[in-house]
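Reopening this one. Same input as before:
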Amino acid sequence: MMEAYTAFAPCYDAMMGDVDYDAWAKYLHELLQKEGAKTVLECACGTGNLTLRLGKLGYSVIGTDISEDMLMVARQKALDAGLRLLPFACQSMEEVRIHRPVDALVCACDGVNYLQNGPEAFFACANRALQPGGVLLFDVSSAYKLQHVLGDNTFAATGKDWAYIWENAWRPQLRRVDMVLTGFVAQGSAYRRFEEHHIQRAYEVGELTAALTAAGFRDIEVMEAFTRQAPGPQTERIQFFARKG
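Same output, byte for byte:
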């Protein structure tokens, strides 16, 4: 999905204004603190909303994303926040490489759902990027959410200088939701229209835990996101925790 998150990048933060990134970063911080993690790699970091917050919490953090447009926004935000040494790199999740292994790898907000060819390549890269005993934290939108909440539904929202229409179609045979995002961004007295296509794949918990085990992870925990509770049949976001063996 290299064409995704291009024209969308400059207005992404405004359109995602209802996401509580402070609470999300606090939740990840609580999980990382228990592991004594100090160095963190965040994959699919987008405009750096969590990357910056983890940096402010004292972690030595690196952000990677496949979209250079999103990273341009992230870099400017880091400069504005006084985090001039916070590095960002344009890398695919399935080909991520770093010079030194880290204590933890984080991938939040549906990054794994975008992996259309399966999670195996990403899990292998994550394993190589981690110190022995290091931890992988990622979340997915559940199959229930993709099929019953997003699938075959249309959403729309407006802001001061932007608007979007988000049309979704659930593809049961492919176990995925196809999304068409049409956005409008103010430019002077007119609006610029853009369109992006996104695809998210539905993964079952057993499918992901089996792939994690095959990639060399152990101590796998599956939780309802933002809690430590087991996910239920209508849980919309599922958090995974796994340790490098």
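So the earlier flakiness isn't reproducible anymore. For the record, Helices lie at 12-15, 21-33, 49-56, 68-80, 120-129, 143-150, 205-214.
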